[in-house]
Design a protein that fits this description.
Blueprint: E1 8-14, H1 17-25, E2 30-35, E3 43-50, E4 53-60, E5 64-69, E6 74-80, E7 87-89, E8 92-93, E9 99-103, E10 108-112, E11 118-124, H2 125-134, H3 138-145, E12 150-151, H4 155-174, H5 176-179, H6 182-202, H7 215-227, H8 235-242, H9 246-257, H10 261-280, H11 287-293, H12 299-310, H13 314-320
Antiparallel strand pairs: 1-3, 2-5, 3-4, 4-11, 5-10, 6-9, 6-11, 7-8, 7-10, 9-12
Helix pairs in contact: 2-3, 2-6, 4-6, 10-11, 10-13
């Protein structure tokens, strides 16, 4: 299916993680983001749609957990533009030598820590199929539709791809009007489809990456937590539900999220409080009433944890969104 992308170059800055999701929907990415690191959130999203290809470079100053869906009928190749501290993708631990593949048939499942610039190149499947067939890259054609979600391309190919991305982002920034000319768009389209095919083709010479064996049950544990944030669910309850030991659960969460299960649960409940505070502004609902709904009964400790996590008092969230 071909996607019709209106040519544009846009930079968006934001100070609220919920705004990130709403702004990305304008570019056909339907995602939910949750902070996993404490502190005031700042982010920038640069998007360029040129020659039917979408280039994106999201940068955030805090670690986030992202889930959702990419534009239908597309495949996205994503690479870190610097060495990541923690970068998890569908249970894979990715490095600066790895690339993620996001296919619209599979949901997004990502966790990234710290300030990690990430480059994403999104192309419709039909264009990749067509050029792969024309150049006799049958292995690439099958890769577009199989279950592979992370690859390790040949280093020289990956360096060339990263170098071209840095160069094209610089051109987008310095010469936006020139880049949007039809002739230039055609050149960019031809070059980058070829580069993406090179990246996909070269991974066949290397052993496949392996996801964490703990990821499936930790993902299930996360689903249970997120479905029960508004009721007291203990770590013991979670272990009994999954039929695993507390030690196994703890190791799994550390491996997949870099956090223990209790810490992860508290962070998600704090996120739930924040969303409800923003939605309840001006309705006469108190901070303590909302905090209690999310399992926080010690108001002093809750207020400290909330301010540490979001950089403001819960009362300020309620007041500023009224």
């Amino acid at each position: 299916m071909n996607i019709n992308l209106q040519p544009l170059i846009e930079t968006i800055t934001f100070h609220d993680i919920d705004e990130l999701g709403s702004r990305m929907r304008a570019f056909r990415w339907d995602m939910v983001h949750r902070p996993i690191e404490a502190g005031t959130f700042e982010g920038e999203l640069f998007v360029a749609q040129v020659g039917g290809i979408q280039f994106a470079r999201p940068i955030y100053n805090r670690g986030i957990r992202s889930q959702g869906d990419s534009p239908p009928g597309t495949i996205t190749v994503g690479i870190p533009l610097s060495t990541p501290r923690v970068f998890k993708w569908h249970g894979y631990s990715l490095s600066s030598n790895s690339a993620l593949l996001q296919k619209s048939s599979r949901g997004i499942d990502m966790l990234r820590s710290g300030n990690l610039p990430l480059a994403l190149v999104t192309i419709d499947n039909d264009s990749l199929f067509s050029q792969a067939e024309q150049t006799d890259r049958l292995g690439v054609a099958s890769l577009i539709t199989d279950s592979t979600l992370a690859i390790q391309p040949e280093p020289t190919v990956l360096r060339r791809f990263r170098s071209h991305l840095r160069y094209i982002f610089e051109l987008f920034w310095r010469q936006p009007q020139t880049i949007l000319e039809p002739a230039m768009q055609s050149l960019i389209r031809e070059d980058f489809i070829s580069l993406v095919l090179d990246v996909l083709d070269s991974h066949q010479n290397y052993p496949p990456l392996r996801p964490s064996i703990r990821h499936p049950y930790i993902k299930r544990a996360e689903e249970i937590l997120l479905d029960n944030l508004d009721r007291p669910l203990s770590i013991l309850d979670l272990c009994q539900e999954l039929h695993i030991s507390e030690r196994t659960l703890r190791y799994g969460f550390q491996e997949c999220f870099g956090l223990g299960p209790a810490t992860y649960l508290k962070i998600q409940r704090l996120n739930g409080v924040r969303r409800q505070l923003k939605a309840s502004a001006g309705q006469g609902i108190t901070v303590s009433a909302i905090a209690l709904q999310w399992g926080f009964w010690h108001m002093g400790q809750f207020a400290k944890d909330y301010k540490k996590m979001f950089g403001e008092c819960p009362s300020a969230t309620l007041r500023d969104n009224s």
